[in-house]
Write a structure and sequence with these properties.
46% of the residues lie in helices and 13% in strands. It is built from 16 helices and 7 strands. Bound molecules: S-adenosylmethionine (SAM). S-adenosylmethionine binds at residues 137, 147, 151, 155, 184-186, 206-209, 212, 234-236, 250-252, 255-257.
């Protein structure tokens, strides 16, 4: 302990010091989990009999020396098991169930990728702490790729089984044929899932990102979908009037430059009996009420280093991902929405699902 430090209750401090050690190890393992996902190492290791680093590297098509060091981190972290002296490594099925592509929608290695994505912008974010301002979307090279994987897990995999049923009668209406828009659609996976499932309905995806819309268009073409179109469009300046029966926004309101304008535009774009379905981050506006949130620190970190900063970069509101369901409820009311219902899905601690009506 330093000589100039104030006298502290050492026994009370010890657990905190231990916790900080765990935090360092957890942060380091998050990076290696991301690497394990991107290199396919978890997928290669899953279901395999105990194997040495050379065989694993050969099976995964990777460099043995790097694979051996990765196995060291995984073994020291208790993710991979290795009997002392064996030089053999195995991924228990119980761990593979949360770390492989086959584990979707529960693959925790997918969100782990956000941490190295954020680490790449640490220097300019530190500058923003001093000078204000922000970093635009373009500062995050892998964002749309990671987001598409995350969307596949948190939205697409449960869209038909859990999300559409939140609104009684919605599936039948979509089966009969409705006009649907998704604002901030990103790579468009959720909209394409709907377009495939409800061929009599028509779907429009809006996003400001050329890159995301290009990915969406290419994917729609590959799937041969003729009832979906994707448009590069700033969500704050939607011009549609009473056009849509349903508008969705999946994880796309809180990082807007002008979220109030987006919500007003969505309300105007809906028919008088239209529905807005908004997936956004679960949490309270008051940080003191988020101490029990299972993903609180993770979400505030993503918020500070991505969601908030991309908005501030363009002089925006900078709501941040942890704007809270209470703020969301007030903003939806201000935009003219009524009859709001906030739903939680059992398997999804990260999101709140709000259904609101125009009248
Ligand atoms: C967190 S991502 C979610 C993407 C997608 N809905 C999903 O679930 O994968 C937010 C999306 O909002 C888009 N976005 C941000 N600002 C926008 C704006 N002003 N107008 C339209 N889209 C915007 C981003 O390009 C990004 O694709």
């Amino acid at each position: 302990m330093c000589s100039s430090c104030p006298t502290i209750d050492a026994p009370a401090a010890a657990p905190f010091a231990e916790r900080l050690t765990g935090i360092l190890n957890g942060g380091a393992l998050s990076l290696m989990i991301s690497v394990g996902h991107r290199t396919g190492l978890f997928d290669t290791l899953a279901g395999r009999a105990p194997t040495n680093s050379a065989d694993l590297a050969a099976a995964a098509g990777l460099n043995e020396r790097y694979v051996r060091e990765w196995l060291g981190a995984m073994t020291a972290g208790g993710i991979v098991h290795s009997a002392v002296g064996s030089g053999l490594f195995a991924l228990p099925d119980e761990h593979a169930a949360f770390l492989t592509r086959a584990a979707t929608p529960g693959n925790m290695a997918v969100p782990a990728q956000f941490l190295p994505m954020l680490a790449r912008v640490e220097d300019p974010i530190v500058d923003c702490f001093r000078d204000g301002g922000g970093l635009p979307y373009e500062a995050f090279p892998r964002f749309h790729e990671i987001m598409a994987e995350e969307s596949e897990q948190t939205v697409v995999s449960v869209l038909l089984s859990h999300v559409i049923p939140l609104v009684p009668g919605l599936a039948d209406a979509l089966r009969a044929g409705r006009e649907v828009a998704d604002v901030g659609c990103g790579s468009g996976l959720a909209l394409m899932q709907l377009a495939t499932s409800f061929p009599a309905s028509r779907f429009t995806g809006y996003d400001a990102s050329q890159e995301a819309i290009a990915r969406a268009r290419e994917s729609a073409q590959r799937r041969g979908l003729s009832n979906v179109r994707f448009v590069v469009q700033d969500a704050a300046t939607l011009v549609d009037e009473q056009r849509f029966d349903l508008v969705t926004a999946f994880d796309a309101v809180h990082d807007q430059v002008d979220p109030a304008a987006m919500l007003s535009g969505i309300r105007r774009a809906l028919k008088p009996d239209g529905l807005f379905l908004m997936q956004d981050i679960e949490g309270h506006s008051d940080p003191a009420r988020n101490t029990e949130h299972p993903l609180g620190p993770f979400l505030y970190t993503i918020s500070c280093m991505h969601c908030m900063t991309v908005s501030l970069a363009k002089g925006g509101a900078g709501l941040g991902a942890m704007w809270g369901v209470d703020t969301a409820e007030a903003m939806l009311r201000d935009a003219g929405f009524v009859d709001q219902h906030v739903h939680r899905l059992e398997h999804d601690a990260m999101n709140a699902w709000t259904v609101a009506r125009v009248s």
